[in-house]
Amino acid sequence: MNRQNLRLFAKYAIYVAVIFFAYILQSTPGLFEFCGVKPLLVLPACICAAVYEGEYAGGLLAVFGGLLCDFASDTIFGFNAILFLVLCCATGLAFMYLVRAAFANVMFVSLGALFVRALLVFAFSYAIWGYGGLASLFYTYTAPSVVWSAAFTPIFFFIARGVHSAFEPADEKEAGI
Amino acid sequence: MNEFFKSWHFKVLMGIVIVLFAFMLRAAATGGTGTLISQTVGVITAPFMKLSASVADSVSNFAERYLLTEKVYLENEELKEQLRDANEKLVDYETIKRENEQFREFLELKEDNPDYDFETAMVIGRDATSRFGSFTIDKGSLAGIEVADPVITADGLVGIVWEVDLTYSYVRTVLDTSLEVGVYDIRTRDSGIVTGDVTLADDSLCRMSYIPRDSGASAGDLIVTSGIGGVFPKDLVVGTLLSVQPESSGISLSATVRPAADISGVTDVLVIKYFEGQGAAANNASGASSSQSETSSQSGTSSQSETSSQSGASSSGSGASSAPSSSAAEGQG
């Protein structure tokens, strides 16, 4: 393995470790629980990785994060992996062609991605079963969990930016810039 | 952007989506995870989750001991008041006292139920997206745990094992709407079914339905499992009634129940791997040709021999078990 590949391997190993660590923190009982709401940390971590690493690497990291979430979730296995892949691919493409990788934009996109996932989970887990008190459930649980999860985005944003800038010269050489 | 959709990156990602979709279809068809990927992920992550849970518990205990003194003081006062109330009742009802003591102490529970085969387990993961307090424990089929094994604490019933893998299991609690437990009021002997409720789950409460309209059940009554159906042992403490009100249909009563076990805060549990009469109804049902002994878990008003759709399921040789496709229920006594 030459030096260039070693740097690439190290970079993605750090991203994998960050996502794995986010998953462990997310699943730890009682940790970061606020007013009965637990944050979803893996998705913001994947979104931030996709912002800096593009749609392909971001999509692969998203599949990894989604599979971890599927493991500890009572949704159908594969649901989170596919959803994360689509969201992170879209994020990677958007930041490559349309949007600048500024903090506010990342926050907005992360909030949107979390909201999309929350809506889908809400629809498939509660709404289609016709439970009572769904509006209350949405306002007291689903919406706060989106906001609380998005609040962790800055941490992952600065980590992703740091990792990307630390390994940027190697990437540029590989791309022939 | 069109370049991306023509690139081999896009084709690779589409391939992954197709594979994941196939796994998802398989999981939906079999009713659980049980795939090689999920088992591999589980084996890798379980030790880390266990370590993380231990650290979080230690930090939490430290904080509670030294930083939350006011909360502890208020809780202590509340507990003292509850103890005074309980003592007054216990003087009048010697039988309830004996049964309470039996159910609240694990060792006594074991001594009084020699047929129980316990497995202690630690909660290593909480489902961040579950409203019903579902969690993962650090024991799986290697420890002899099977799907539909009851999960308890010394305080009372917590839930049921929903999925089993080699080294971990997924537990659904009594707060879950997909779980139905046959119970009876220990004072009035009136039976009913305890199940989760989306709105009550927020306060860690559940609902007892199908109480006879002429029942004398009232707030403070202790409810225990009926044991009919063979999913749960008889006389496991489920919780206490907080309030009783007529159901909208008017033909029966329903009650709000506070589970005896601290569902949202539980860190260590006991899994009952075997008890006398386990899966009895399922066995009877499989032996009988009549379909009357097996009814839908949703028709709780009339069924007398409902059983869990899980009760017949067990972990497979590959170490993974599938969750049942329908809700787990136990008969109304």
Label this structure with key terms.
heterodimer, A: 177 residues, mainly alpha, Arp2/3 complex 21 kDa subunit ARPC3, 6 helices, elongated, B: 333 residues, alpha+beta, 6-stranded antiparallel β-barrel, globular
How does this model look, in words?
- The complex is a heterodimer of chains A (about 180) and B (about 325).
- By secondary structure, chain A is an all-alpha fold.
- Chain A has one domain (about 5-175): Orthogonal Bundle (Arp2/3 complex 21 kDa subunit ARPC3).
- Helices cover about 75% and strands about 0% of the residues of chain A.
- Chain A has helices at about 5-25, 40-70, 80-95, 105-125, 135-150, 155-175.
- The longest helix of chain A has 30 residues, at about 40-70.
- The radius of gyration of chain A is 17 Å and the shape is elongated.
- Chain A starts with a helix and ends with a helix.
- In chain A, about 45% of the residues are buried.
- Chain B is of the alpha+beta class.
- Helix content of chain B is about 35%, strand content about 25%.
- Chain B contains 7 helices and 13 strands.
- Chain B has helices spanning about 1-5, 10-30, 35-65, 70-90, 95-105, 105-110, 280-285; strands at about 115-125, 135, 150, 155-165, 170-175, 180-185, 190-195, 205-210, 220-225, 235-245, 250-260, 270-275, 330.
- In chain B, the strands form 2 sheets. In chain B, strands 1-2-5-4-3-12 form a 6-stranded antiparallel barrel. In chain B, strands 6-7-8-11-10-9 form a 6-stranded antiparallel barrel.
- In chain B, strand 3 (about 150) and strand 4 form a beta hairpin.
- In chain B, helix 4 (about 70-90) packs across helix 5 (about 95-105) and helix 5 (about 95-105) packs across helix 6.
- The relative contact order of chain B is 0.15.
- The chains are: A mainly alpha (about 180), B alpha+beta (about 325).
- Chains A and B meet through helix 1, helix 2, helix 3 and helix 5 of A and helix 2, helix 3 and strand 1 of B.
